[in-house]
């Protein structure tokens, strides 16, 4: 009877220990799965944030490029308008010169008729007319020179503005490249941090697995020792 009771007790003990180990393993597995799921969610969230930031940077770059194109188009329109104005003024000046020339020719013809009537008076008047012509030519030449100087100055100003616009465009491009490089560095750093965290998690999981295996082996040894003791006692009995 005692031997049967001992067998029954040992059987119950083995069953109870196996039940405890199974439940303990399942709980640890559940905890590990929960941690892994949390880590995956965090990684996905970080990836989403990075994608959103990249999209924002791309939108900002496109907006800056559009603004630059608009400014360049406006400058080109202004240049064309100014050239049209200059051409209009030049045409007006040419018309005025032609009109003056026509008036001078008319006056010369009149003077020739008057010369035939009175040579002395005509000579005086011709001299006066020549002086007036010279003065008018001088004034016209001065005006033309002034106009040419104004045109050259305006062209210089336009070239300066264009150079300034090109410099601003290059500076904006440089700033955008710097921002992009900074963003790439931040992304790489975030990726490195994520990889380090993942490696740490893998190490922790492996350590936990090792501890669990060690504890299981200890439990198995204890069970075997208990079984051995029970068998020795039974043999002694």
Description:
Helix content is 99%, strand content 0%. It contains two helices and no strands. The protein has helices spanning 2-117, 119-236. It has one domain. The protein is mostly helical.
Which features does this protein show?
disordered N terminus, 237 residues, single chain, mainly alpha, 2 helices
Q: Quick gist of this model?
A:
With 237 residues, the chain is an all-alpha fold.
Which helices and strands occur, and which strands form pairs?
Layout: H1 2-117, H2 119-236
Helix pairs in contact: 1-2
State which percent range the strand residues make up. Answer: under 5%
Structural class: mainly alpha
Query: How would you spell out the order of helices and strands?
Result: HH
- General form: rod-shaped
Roughly how many Å is the radius of gyration?
51 Å
Classify the helix fraction into a percent range: over 70%
Average pLDDT for all residues = 83
Unreliable sequence segments: 1-6
The number of distinct β-strands equals 0
Distance between the termini: 11 Å
How is the biggest beta sheet arranged? none
Number of domains: 1
- The total count of helices amounts to 2
């Amino acid at each position: 009877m005692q031997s049967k009771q001992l067998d029954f007790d040992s059987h119950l003990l083995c069953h109870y220990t196996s039940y405890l180990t199974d439940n303990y393993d399942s709980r640890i597995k559940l905890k590990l799965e929960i941690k892994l799921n949390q880590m995956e969610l965090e990684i996905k969230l970080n990836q989403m944030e990075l994608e959103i930031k990249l999209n924002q940077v791309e939108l900002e770059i496109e907006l800056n490029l559009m603004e630059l194109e608009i400014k360049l188009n406006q400058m080109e329109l202004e240049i064309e308008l100014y050239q049209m104005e200059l051409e209009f003024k030049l045409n007006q000046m040419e018309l005025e010169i032609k009109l003056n020339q026509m008036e001078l020719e008319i006056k010369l013809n009149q003077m020739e008729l008057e010369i035939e009537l009175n040579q002395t008076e005509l000579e005086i008047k011709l001299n006066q007319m020549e002086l007036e012509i010279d003065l008018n030519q001088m004034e016209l030449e001065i005006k033309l020179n002034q106009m040419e100087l104004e045109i050259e100055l305006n062209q210089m100003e336009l070239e300066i503005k264009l150079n300034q616009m090109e410099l601003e465009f290059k500076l904006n491009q440089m700033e955008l490249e710097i921002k992009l490089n900074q963003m790439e560095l931040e992304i790489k750093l975030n990726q490195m941090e994520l990889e380090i965290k993942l490696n740490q998690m893998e190490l922790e999981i492996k350590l936990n697995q090792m501890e669990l295996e060690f504890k299981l082996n200890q439990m198995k040894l204890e069970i075997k020792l208990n079984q051995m003791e029970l068998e020795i006692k039974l043999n002694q009995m």
